[in-house]
Design goal:
The chain is of the alpha/beta class. It has one domain: Rossmann fold, CATH 3.40.50. Helix content is 30%, strand content 29%. It has helices spanning 4-12, 45-54, 67-79, 117-127, 147-150, 153-157, 166-176, and strands at 35-39, 59-64, 85-89, 102-108, 128-140, 179-191, 194-204. The protein has a seven-stranded mixed sheet, with helices on both faces. Helix 3 (67-79) links the parallel strand 2 (59-64) and strand 3 (85-89). Helix 4 (117-127) packs parallel to helix 7. The N and C termini lie far apart (35 Å). The structure holds S-adenosylmethionine. S-adenosylmethionine binds next to helix 1 and strand 2.
């Protein structure tokens, strides 16, 4: 799947538009001194909030595919004088961080853009320390979307064409090794006539 449409969409997005599926950082319950990562951090609102929560002894990385999003996130952290944060340009199926190095991973409405969700969750598992946790908000469906929607780059960039079924999603989580998966909230809505599900959930890497 080409990333061109995704980068185009987020480069052209209005500076003040709402990009998230609803905040989820409160479910992560970050503690002072922890090290965390925000995958598909966008303009960095929750990344900066996470950096405040972990305090000066902790550190937070924000990773995003779109240079414009990274620029805006860096501008935000500079304006707020937050020093314990770093924004990295890259793709979440190849996270440029060390194995077993993070306490927590956060992602809000971003993983649906990546075709290979299992690759993303494997990467997440690799970078988390034993006992580490994630909280993700993402889009999925009850029944598979038509193939032509899945293959439509604009639909993928528009946060629905890349959605897989709940069953496929849960298989990816368990194949990656996560356990104690718990759903915090769920919202169902119609997008272009398709029934979509926005879920916020957590999972753990075994200790
Ligand atoms: C809907 S926005 C959400 C942004 C932010 N998490 C929020 O809640 O405001 C999705 C973000 O995911 C990023 N993204 C899409 N594909 C990505 C990938 N393969 N790796 C990293 N980021 C990606 C986009 O550039 C965009 O900033």
């Amino acid at each position: 799947m080409s990333t061109f449409e995704i980068v185009k969409r987020y480069t052209e997005e209005d500076k003040n538009s709402n990009l998230s599926c609803g905040g989820n950082i409160q479910y992560l319950e970050l503690k002072e001194g922890e090290r965390a990562l925000d995958l598909g951090c966008g303009r960095g609102g929750e990344t900066v909030e996470a950096a405040k929560q972990v305090g000066s002894q902790g550190f937070v990385w924000g990773l995003d595919l779109t240079p414009r999003m990274i620029d805006l996130a860096q501008e935000r952290s500079r304006n707020e004088q937050i020093l314990n944060v770093k924004f990295i340009l890259g793709s979440m199926d190849q996270i440029p961080l060390k194995d077993n190095s993070l306490d927590a991973v956060l992602s809000n409405c971003a993983i649906n853009h990546v075709e290979d969700k299992l690759a993303v969750y494997r990467e997440m598992y690799r970078v988390l320390k034993p006992g580490g946790r994630f909280v993700v908000s993402d889009i999925m469906t009850e029944t598979p979307l038509p193939q032509e929607i899945k293959e439509d780059p604009e639909a993928v960039a528009d946060c629905f064409g890349g959605a897989i079924t709940i069953r496929e999603y849960e298989e990816s989580l368990s194949q990656a090794g996560f356990f104690k998966v718990e759903v915090f909230k769920e919202r169902r809505y119609l997008k272009n006539g398709y029934e979509m599900i926005s879920r916020t959930f957590q999972g753990y890497k075994e200790s």
